[in-house]
Amino acid sequence: MQIPENAPFTLEQRTKLNSILAALNPAQQTWVSGFFSGIVSSAAASTAQTATAPELTILFGTESGNSEELADRTKKLAAKYGYKSKVVNMSETDTKKLSASKNLLVIVSTWGDGDPPDTATGFYKELMGDGAAKFSNTSFSVLALGDSSYEKFCEIGKKIDRRLEELGGKRVFDRVDCDVNYEANWETWSAGALKAFPVGTSSAPQTTVVATAAAASEGFGKKNPFPAILEEKILLNGTGSAKETLHLELNLEGSGLQYEVGDALAIVPTNRDQDVEWVLLATGLDANTKLGDKTLAEAIKHDFDITSLTSRIAGKYNEIAKDTKLTALLDPENKKQFAEWSYGRQFIDLLEDFPCKTLTADSLTGLLRGMAPRLYSIASSPKAHENEVHLTIAAVRYQTHGKSRVGVASTYTADLVEKGDKIPVYVHSNKNFRLPVDPSTPIIMIGPGTGIAPFRAFVEERQAIGATGKNWLFFGDQHYSYDFLYQLEWQNFLKEGVLNRLDVAFSRDQPEKIYVQHKLLQASAEVYKWIADGACVYVCGDANRMAHDVNSALIEIIAKQGAKSAEEAEACLAEMKKAKRYQRDVY
Amino acid sequence: MAGNEKIKDASNYLRGTLLEGLADTSTGALCDDDTQLTKFHGIYQQDNRDVRAERRKKKLEPAYSFMIRVRVPGGVSTPEQWLEMDRLAHTYANGTLKLTTRQAFQFHGVIKSNLKKTVYEINQSLFDTLAACGDVNRNVMCNPNPDESEVHAEVQELASRISNHLSPRTGAYHEIWIDDGSGEKQKVTYDPPILDHFDTAEEPIYGKHYLPRKFKTVVAVPPSNDVDIFAHCLGYIAIVEQKKVVGYNVTVGGGMGMTHGSEDTFPRLADVMGFCTPDQAVAVAEAVVIAQKIFGNREDRKNARLKYTVERMGIDSFRNEVERLLGYKLGKPRPFKFEHNGDRFGWTKDHKGNFHYTMFIANGRVLDTDEYQMMTGLREIAKVHRGDFRLTANQNLQIGNVSKAAKPKIEKLLKDYKILDANGASGLRLNSMACVALPTCGLSLAESERYLPDLISELDEVLEQAGLRHDAITVRMTGCPNGCARPYIAEIGFVGRGPGTYNLYLGAGFCGDRLNKLYRQSVKSTDIKAVIGPIIRDYAHNRKSGERFGDFVIRQGYVNATNVGHDFHKDLKPEALGA
To answer: How many angstroms away from the CA of B122 is the closest CA of chain A?
Structure first.
């Protein structure tokens, strides 16, 4: 008997449990199982439900769909605790409406450099602003989602948590911050918070809540990724390009996995051998050290993120290393120096620059977070490619501080898997990136680089369902001759009349840089006319600059063409966002 | 009517759908008909043939780009223009400049989105691309030979006048390339037609169908025949008496192109038609163009060049037609003597005391490599040079009109950038030419520019051993039989037949006055050295004093002489085709 890898235990706990379980005879196993179920049911019995169902609001702010998914699951769980709850998207509410809630759970993610999810921007601004309503009658708890490889980890959750308290709210359960593997933390938080509400103490789960260890039997998904066969792998860039963009076709037959256009596919990658060797070499640890049923080398290769470097990891490491220089660097006073040092560096640099000879296999893996799956916007419509899912992935490679670095998942697909190999995947739904319900609605798609992926899916879908709405695509990359991703397909779509207009921007073909936002501005009058005619606008791709520049361009277009002030134009765009007429999938 | 005639007919004076095609950003190409019309504007659509197969798989169309040919009458460029060509090559093209066999600049690899800007900026530099290709009179060549610099200015002026006079008058060029959207039409003035033969208001000389085929004009000053006067449709041989040009012998009906396997097509050397005075020269050009417009073959493009018109009509009938159009008789040809068709390298001094430096440029390709920063060196020279640059007909470059005072400065730059060393190549290499061919030229059947330098290195070994390193032997290679590098008047000519396979021609005259003859058909590139080596060794041992390689191979019986164009495919040795 083995505890599955995806069960909610740390590696250390799992290893210990496994060693105990292995030693149990059948009679002992039965006794243990009875013991645990007894604990749970007696807890339930002692808090039997009495009053009418208390109300609960579950507020989420989501970018990629994780918070929304957790909100839905929290609602199901809350029902078991006896709550009558409703799930509310930050994009569709304001503080006044919300402050009427007695019991409030907030699930919100943080993006990029401490930004709120795109769809939550309006709500967040209002909440932080002077005009926010008071939450004096509200009990709340916050679950913050984030990625600890970013410096401002869970920043938005933290700020909302603080702000709700400032506005008079009563925190009933401490905020829980989640890293990319959020499952266990969600379970802790949801169970804790649901019990902590004033009414909640008297209600309780009516049925036994058991961690979903048996996920495998529920089919393939996040907890049990499907090993999809790689059917096709094409380097889309022509000879001479500086880019390396891959087109992948994966077979989903027999997986039961289903997706809609706009969804993402998660890939669970494997670290490259070189990175594993570097870590082993720097720590001096024996690759064959047993760690559960794996060797240390295997465990690092498959189960852990060995590239991210944050002050958090450095701090944990220094508890063991106790390096004076690192201690100085980690001093909160020296935040800037740490940021400078860590820029372009990875975990391996920590090991090499501040060597520590007392690290053990356990303490090393204790520092690391689990291997994070990577999400890629799906580039195909299931209606056009039955049982297949296509991806467009840019391989990330660069050189810093004398070492060649890679994006783990992108180069995993580029270098470590070939046609015929299997890749662990699952579908990640993204309800915030959906084609308009009405197929006659025109759409404008802005997707430079790999941002093109979901729009290939969109156009395929619109063709497959015979949608009558017009389709306009803006694409951009470095060079026309090498980087015009899926050019022949776009030409066909144009010929067939599915794609009505295509505008392209290639930044490095001429002395001045031309980007998609310039093409948008050039076509101002037309773009405005489409918007006025009800078009939905979609943006996919780089979040750092492109999405921002495109946003500014749209404001400029609406302002100029609609004879509005910048503020009015901004409000107009915010309104479109709310109405799901302006959707973004940026990363 | 040949296909191209219909395209011209429907084009509204070369406009076609070019504006629409340029605006379509979904493809880097233009539609087929328009790609015929762009030639009249100096532009060829090409694609990188090396990557055709892989791109289809990558969901990319062929790697289309455009070659732009800049018309440079007589090949003379100012230093400012040189700098501008250099800048455009780096800004919009592939970072190299090709100096062509017809004294033009060529840019390669310009993509469609940059086409208009490039042509516009070329025009801003006071060059243009109009009629650099197409069924019209193309760049007018002129001998840049400094030995005759007293008359150079005069013949150069004639080249410019003919170029201007025979330029297409259509407004299409300016509408498409020069109009900057300001609504102001640039007005271009041309001389009115001279002869009483008015066609249409938009094109008084050419009419809406232009010529049946391309038309090439050259001017030469004996004894140098570096422009290969007999290889062109129309030629002017300057007759100099007492250091003055008293007139020109007019030649007609030369041309290189042919088609493999079609004996109806052949290279032909021009006939000397008569003599005209300097005042008559431009009118004669107009008359020859009109005669070709009337009598040229518009049914079959492979038989449409002026050389076939002259061949069919006979030189006397053709002269009669020209004289009828002119309204007067041409004079009797005067004696002249050409001595060579190559360039003379290094410094020469003219009668005014100015200096001219002719440098060897392999296949006319100006570029920088890790070992040889030629392009940078020439740019540095252009920044300080007060004279001019002259593109030679052999794809080389002359830094012209360097004053005595400026010479040390120029010389130092030539030395610093190792340009002086380039002229130390073997006699064979210095007298070599190759066309562009693969990967961009759509016509090529085999490598040329990318291969000839290596082949010459192989042959140099044989020459070295035979003691012939410094002997000038003309060698030319083209990737197809159309003859851009004039391979049929090379003492050793290679013409591509298929990948790695060439027809080998021998026996042309050293001064461009006799065509060569097929020596071996379909020689594998790996066998070339073995095929030619013994002949070179024979030449080293058994040549007569001063005997040229092209004359020697005929005397020794390797090939028979080709005395007239229609005999080009005749009198082959049995082993030429068999073997």
So the answer is: 16
